Each structure stands twice: as structure tokens, then as C-alpha cells.
Amino acid sequence: MVTGLPLIGWGTAYIVGLAALDLLDGVLRMAVVALAYLFGMALSWLPTRDVIRTGTEPRMRAAWFVVLFATPCLAVAARPESFTYAMLMACALWGLAMCLYGVATGDVVFATVAGSGTVLAGLLAMPDLAHPLAWFGVGAGLPLLVLGASRVLHGVRHA
Asked: Does 158 have pLDDT greater than 60?
């Protein structure tokens, strides 16, 4: 449950939020993106507060906030040619951060799934593909969602 619900939250947020960024316009676009983000945050922080206490939670929370606030700065500093490429870069950075979290915690499956999102962002940035953010949302979000659901339903064998 420690990683299951957050993975469900962020997998869903990737699928819904990135598709909204790519396919919707105006206020509806921003509303769907905000709701998707809030859903991901809610499933990351709320259910796991009392599940396991290791003493590292404040440091991990601080590390994720660093990633959260550094990502837009790094994307802007890279000066991508469009909003779409800035978002793909941000998604690649989040995939890298999740991959490193998986490596640090010894969670090879999570590290592999998250790292594949970083690779996917790079691949989708190369061709002139229609709706790359929507494709990324599904391609990176669905594996996160499936892994999270599997962990909630069946548990995980290590902590």
C-alpha cells in the first residue's frame, strides 16, 4: 500500500492530465489538469501517513518537493522550442526522479517502470508525432497504474 496508492494516483494523473494538456483547451483544460494533479497528490500523501513509519518520511517528502519545484526551472533553462517539449522534458525528469527513488529503495520493478517513462519521453520528442503528451500519458501512466493496482490488490514482497 505504501507505493500502491501513489502509483495509482500518478498513473491516473499522467493519463488524464497529459491527455487534457494535449487535447483540451481553455478553462476545461486547466480544470482537468488541476484535478488530475490533486488526485495524484492526494493518493501520494493522505493514505500512507499511518501505514509505515521508518523515520525517513520527512527527508523523502522534502526530496519530492525539491523535484517538484526544480522541474519547471530545469525545463525553462533548457529552452525547449514548445510547451509540448517542455512538458516532455518535465515528464522525463519526473520519471528519472521516480527511477532513482526505486533504485534507492531497492524496488527494481518500480525503478524499471519509472525509468521506461524517461526513455519514452525521449522517444516521443524525436518524431513529429500527433499528440505526444497524450501518448506519453498513456505509455508511462498505464504501467504506473497497473503496478499500483497490483500492489494494492496483491501486496508487495519487500518494504
From this structure: no
